Amino acid sequence: MKQIRNPMPVVVGASAGGMAALKELVAQLPEDFPAPVFVVNHMGMHTTGEALVNVLNGSGNLPCAQAHDQQAFKSGHIYLAPSDQHMLIDNGKILITKGARENRSRPAIDPLFRSAAVAYGNRVIGIILTGYLDDGTSGMMAIKRCGGVCIAQDPEDAAYPDMPRSVIANVGADYCMPIAGMGALLSELVTRELPERTPVPEDIVIEAKIAQRVLSDLPSVEALGHQVPYNCPDCGGVLWQMEEGSLLRYRCHTGHAFTSSALLAQQTVKVEETLWVALRMFEERQNLLVTMSKNESKQSPSSISQRAKDSQVHIDRIRAMLKATGKDLHGEKTE
């Protein structure tokens, strides 16, 4: 197939439960589907993604492969974001970057969606499928603001309804439906007539450039929001708060980005890590004090034994906090 000069890209985001959802979606696309399909499915940094590629190749009519940097894309092909890297699109090519994590994920959905909105405006069709929390909501908002189409899986149809539910609540989906109806809809949408593109909002352009690592400085972030008294849980830098409707988001100047839900979940993870370090240090201190108390002179009074007992009080408190934090962390639905 020839490279597309004026593509109508379909960008898809999925997370927990994504393999089954994507398998059902691509099975509906015909062999002559006249658009490229770009997929971000959250995965661990050590996951190759080959299992999903094999499943999608065996489920539908379109060839699927992991994307490569500077690769020219074609219609009738599915491109999967590789693990631990963001996938962006621009000027008929795929960009694979090692940009900062967004919403605790790399690859993340938002960077792909924003890059598509900036490059192709009202020609973009965005789809959000099953998953925890709300990655993809801000990116879908960018697509919507640039005139593109927003499709959300019906939460009742999703194995994990958080992501489509967030899009519906914060963006307002043009279409909310079960996956079973998306194939026919996509075939109709990719052949529709479109009006002229409108200019892309500057804040979307800035964020898209940050994902490409073209911009990562204080002026660019200050143009997006205002500084708040929180620190980035990934790098320790200060955060800027951005408001998109009712959606609160945060960025640091190095590029990390979070929705409020993702920030809270990552803060909880960091709190737990800190508590484990504190527990180790108190236990080591207590062990040293016990050793010292055994070697101290029986003739001279000492507070070492009492200090060891006091350390046990702190150890018990930290263990109680860890138990409570574990329950809170479970409630955050981390992926």
From TrEMBL:
Report biased composition (Polar residues) as residue ranges: 292-306
* Gene Ontology terms for molecular function: phosphorelay response regulator activity; protein-glutamate methylesterase activity
Q: Which InterPro entries match?
A: CheB_C (IPR035909), Chemotax_prot-Glu_Me-esterase (IPR011247), Sig_transdc_resp-reg_Me-estase (IPR000673)
Q: Where is this region: Disordered?
A: 292-312
Q: By its UniProt entry, which CDD domains does this protein fall under? A: CheB (cd16433)
What this protein catalyses is: [protein]-L-glutamate 5-O-methyl ester + H2O = L-glutamyl-[protein] + methanol + H(+)
Hydrolase listed as a keyword: yes
Reply yes or no: does the keyword Secreted apply.
no
Name of the protein in its database record: protein-glutamate methylesterase
